[in-house]
Every structure is written in structure tokens, then in C-alpha cells.
């Protein structure tokens, strides 16, 4: 059984990416999964002066410890104006200052969703490159298009059968790959 840490890269209290991550982790069988909200880790906007004067925030070290304790990560990223959100970029900036290779040996399922058909693909592409820079390995990546049209928030389920089968298949592949180490 693998230890998996899951989160969305959004700071919205009504994050559709958090909804997607929640759905996905509830589909996992025989895995130890911890779902967190990055908003529970209070990080100021990264600034070298802050780092030099005050050091690393306590919540940063807590988040870092959560990541280090996991065998794998499930991340769903949002997009603002065609780019990764400043909130998530800030989290990555802080983590990379604490340890440039903070994702070393971490296996990652990377997802994204949006209200449009592109499913936050530009943000997902940026984060995939960042994961590689921080020495993580993206095992699977997918975009979930037009969230409101394809997911029932109240029932917490995917309404499009093709997307549902795709997510199920992706999860199965991810679990097989992390089981192999």
C-alpha cells in the first residue's frame, strides 16, 4: 500500500480542482491517501528579503514534511489567465527554496480542470515542467474539460461516461505504476 498525498493548486473555497481531487481519491482502493488543502498552510508571497530576515515559515516546513512522507502525489491545478495561479506558483517557489529537489523520487498524477474545453492545459504543462525541475516524475497527466458540464457537484460524480472511464483507467495505471516503485 502506497502513501499518497493529494491536493489542488487552488486557493478558492469553491475550487473545482479540489472537487476533482476529492472525487479521484475516493475512487482509490487499497491506498493510504491524505487529502489536504494548501490554504491550510499559510505562506506569504515569496520574497528573498523575507526569507533572509525571517527564515522559512513554519507552515512551509509542515507542508514539506507531508510531501516527504508520501510515496506519491495527486495534484490538480487550476489556471488564471492562461497560466498557473499565483497562489500555487508561490507554494512551488517556497518549497523549492527550502529544498530545490523537494519532489525527488515522488511519483505524480497530475490533473487539471476548468470551466472551458482546454481544461487548464497551459497550467498543467507549466506544472509538469516544474515537477521535472524539482526531480519528481509525472506518471500520468490528464485534463478534465468543461467541469460544470461533466461533473455533478451535488452527487460528487462524473456525468460523462467517456470521461468517467478515462479517469478510472488513468487511476488504475497510476496505482500499478506506483506499486512497481
Automatic annotation (TrEMBL):
Domain NADPH-dependent FMN reductase-like as annotated: residue spans: 3-123
GO molecular function terms attached to this record: FMN binding; oxidoreductase activity
Coiled-coil region(s): none
SUPFAM superfamilies documented for this protein: Flavoproteins (SSF52218)
Gene3D superfamilies from the UniProt entry: 3.40.50.360
Any Gene Ontology CC annotation: cytosol
Protein name: NAD(P)H-dependent FMN reductase
Amino acid at each position: 500500500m502506497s502513501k499518497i498525498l493529494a491536493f489542488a493548486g487552488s486557493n478558492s473555497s469553491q475550487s473545482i480542482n479540489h472537487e476533482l481531487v476529492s472525487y479521484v481519491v475516493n475512487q482509490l482502493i487499497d491506498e493510504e491517501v491524505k487529502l489536504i488543502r494548501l490554504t491550510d498552510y499559510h505562506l506569504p508571497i515569496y520574497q528573498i528579503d523575507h526569507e533572509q530576515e525571517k527564515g522559512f515559515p513554519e507552515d512551509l516546513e509542515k507542508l514539506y514534511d507531508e510531501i516527504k512522507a508520501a510515496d506519491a502525489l495527486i495534484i490538480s491545478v487550476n489556471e488564471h489567465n492562461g497560466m498557473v495561479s499565483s497562489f500555487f506558483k508561490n507554494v512551488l517557489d517556497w518549497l523549492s527554496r527550502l529544498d530545490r529537489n523537494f519532489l525527488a523520487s515522488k511519483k505524480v498524477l497530475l490533473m487539471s480542470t476548468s470551466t472551458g474545453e482546454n481544461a487548464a492545459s497551459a497550467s498543467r504543462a507549466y506544472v509538469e515542467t516544474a515537477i521535472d525541475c524539482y526531480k519528481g516524475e509525472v506518471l500520468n497527466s490528464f485534463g478534465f474539460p468543461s467541469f460544470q458540464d461533466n461533473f455533478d457537484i451535488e452527487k460528487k460524480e462524473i456525468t460523462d461516461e467517456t470521461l468517467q472511464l478515462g479517469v478510472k483507467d488513468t487511476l488504475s495505471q497510476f496505482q500499478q505504476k506506483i506499486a512497481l516503485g
